[in-house]
Amino acid sequence: MERSPFPHHGPLEPDQVTGRERLAVDLAQRITDRRLTALLGPRRYGKTSLLKRVAADLEAVGHQPVWIDLYERTSIADVAAAVDRGLAEVVGPVRRMLDEIAGPFSVNLGLLGVQLSRSPKQRPDAVLTLRNLLEVLTTAAQRHSLFVVFDEFSGIANVQGGAAVLRTELQHHFQDIGIVFAGSAPSTMQALFSEQSQPFFAQADLVEIEPLADDAIVHIIEDGFEATGRGTGGITSRIAQFAQGHPQRAMQLADALWRHVDEGATASPPAWEAALADVRRHVDAGSDRIFSLLPPGQQKVLRAVAAEGTVYGTTASLLDLPAGTARDAADKLVGNGILHRRPQQLALVDPLLADWLRRRFAI
Ligand SMILES: Nc1ncnc2c1ncn2[C@@H]1O[C@H](COP(=O)(O)OP(=O)(O)OP(=O)(O)O)[C@@H](O)[C@H]1O
Ligand SMILES: [Mg+2]
């Protein structure tokens, strides 16, 4: 079967990332300038894809990336395993240098998982191991241009003492090593990067990944259809309007439309309706689940924002939503990444959750 030009599960390949040129250049410059940076943004906005692209661009000109994924890490041993994996993924001459540096620390890169699965008595000490691995990293950075991406950095907040070990090991070296943190849990990321208790992290510049511009979305869809012998029939602007800059949702909708258009044919309004119905069928149960787990104040805020973009309009008063409750609930929803503040109004991050709310509730 023909492969869809609109992948929407997980990160893209570096050469598939488009529409983010300015931010890609900015991030690459920050890394080479050794400016500590945290890339923030909603889930599925393309943070990992963009940083993989930046990493590939920099690697092509001789800077070695080390990719450390802290997704849902729960213990120091777990963080050490993530760092070990990141170092072990490096190949070529830099890998040989890393192995050489690791030798005196009795660290065998890539084998930590095996060592950690031993009985507690034979297992290496987790904190010491993490320190050693980070020292391998910082020592290597003195000999070769190297940078590290901590993806899903908010995961460190669940690890007791994890942020402190990273800070101690990295704070005196960030002139030598490029460091980017990325994460999507807004309240956790804000807390990690702004608290007085985290002086090292507080030095990081916070950079937002913005919604994908409508014309970038339109271009991506036009290109994908054209490359596979299909026409969009002007439906692209409808997708862009529906997606509200959400990259993954835009690709998911484009993919659904593409599946309704045969090679050599052109998309039509009925095809778009059918595609939208497919996507709704796919995500409605998930929207229902997210909504039903929220407390009543937050549910009302979501309904009001989906309907009117504000918690102070007629919907809010019809739902008996007092201003104080609305403010607190809206702050929580921004903190957990369900809402974001746009210049003029509040908006749902996920256009398909907004769409479900508008269909599910008459007001
Ligand atoms: N520049 C882009 N152009 C087109 N689509 C994109 C772009 N960036 C991301 N996407 C879409 O978004 C999806 C998710 O991207 P990615 O995994 O990089 O996001 P993320 O912000 O790291 O998400 P998560 O919060 O789940 O880690 C991709 O599969 C793709 O469909
Ligand atoms: Mg990601």
Model description:
It contains 16 helices and seven strands. It folds into three domains: 20-208, Rossmann fold (3-Layer(aba) Sandwich); 214-285; 294-360, Winged helix-like DNA-binding domain superfamily/Winged helix DNA-binding domain (Arc Repressor Mutant, subunit A). Helix 6 (126-143) packs parallel to helix 7 and helix 13 (296-308) crosses helix 15. A five-stranded parallel beta sheet has the order 2-3-4-1-5, with helices on both faces. A two-stranded antiparallel sheet has the order 6-7. 52% of the residues lie in helices and 9% in strands. The protein binds adenosine-5'-triphosphate (ATP) and magnesium ion (MG).
Characteristics:
binds magnesium ion, 363 residues, alpha/beta, 52% helix, Arc Repressor Mutant, subunit A, 3 domains
Please give the structural blueprint.
Blueprint: H1 21-32, E1 37-40, H2 47-60, E2 64-69, H3 76-88, H4 93-102, H5 112-116, H6 126-143, E3 146-151, H7 162-170, E4 177-183, H8 186-194, E5 205-208, H9 214-227, H10 236-243, H11 247-259, H12 269-292, H13 296-308, H14 314-318, H15 323-335, E6 339-341, E7 346-348, H16 351-360
Parallel strand pairs: 1-4, 1-5, 2-3, 3-4
Antiparallel strand pairs: 6-7
Bound molecules: adenosine-5'-triphosphate and magnesium ion (MG).
Residues 47-48, 151 line the site of magnesium ion.
Describe, in short, the structure shown:
The chain has helices at 21-32, 47-60, 76-88, 93-102, 112-116, 126-143, 162-170, 186-194, 214-227, 236-243, 247-259, 269-292, 296-308, 314-318, 323-335, 351-360, and strands at residues 37-40, 64-69, 146-151, 177-183, 205-208, 339-341, 346-348. With 363 residues, the chain is of the alpha/beta class. The protein folds into three domains: 20-208, P-loop containing nucleotide triphosphate hydrolases (Rossmann fold), CATH 3.40.50; 214-285; 294-360, Orthogonal Bundle (Arc Repressor Mutant, subunit A), CATH 1.10.10.
